[in-house]
Amino acid sequence: MSAYLIRRLAGTVPVLLLISLLVFLLIHAAPGDPTLLLLGEETNAAEVARAKERWGLDRPLYVQYLKFLAAAAAGDFGKSFKYAEPVIGVIKTRLPATIELAIFSIIIATLLAIPLGVWAGSRPNSWIDNLGTTCGLFGISMPSFWLAIMLILLLAGALNILPTSGRSTYGVAGPERTGFYLFDSLMQKNWPAVWDMLTHVFMPALALGVNMLGILMRVTRSAVLEVMNEEYVVTARAKGLAEKNVVWRHVASNALIPVITVVGLELGTLLSGSIIVETVFAWPGSGSLLITALNARDYPLVTGVVMTYTMAFVAINLIIDGLYAIVDPRIRY
Length: 333
Hints:
By secondary structure, this protein is mainly α.
């Protein structure tokens, strides 16, 4: 098992190199000069030349890329043009917000999708199956940005029960230690901050998780339908087991492999796909940071954020491979 994971890890190195090269070339090919965007259009040529020399933009593109690779191998993505700080430090301040949002989104999606998918798959062509199929179609078809705007108009505008933007109310949260507001608030037993954080995260998490809810529900339903016809399920029923025990103990547990795959892949998608939702809700995560970096043509920061997302995908895929062996012991052989 460990040898397999090591081979998978080694196979990700070419992927990381290819993605870094594509991102590096695409961001440099985009129109706009970062020196003029950050210094202003009225900046004289001498100041522009000094800025390019300071940021290394006066060197050939292949030299810049090789320098970036050498630094990235040591865990250094350079210094941000816009923030004048190390890219790693800027990402660290924003990444916890995105991770927190993705975790809440996946919790909402799994808590609703898996029970609904199991019930729909165990009762094909029933009303619960029709309801689940409709919810799945709604989730897959619904654009997250449109749902986000509708949630703001309804829950924040018309009903005025949830905040429209941000991550917390000013002055409510306590000292920041880990960057995860909920965890910090729980450790400090700051219950008003816990409630404030939950009210702020609910709408963006729901808008981000609805699409995953639809996909996960459809996959769960299909997996359950396939397992329902297996011989061990027929044997369990022949022994006189209650239907709920057959469904949840024998069917649902054996239908988890494709569900785990979707959950893992969608978690990576949520991390990178939160860009639009974070922008709509002014959520201070890495997605909105990427938009800011793109607008400023901040080459090191854009590359650093994209590479962070890429490494997150790689790590999640490795975790999924490990979970396969835990859920289904046959895979270990």
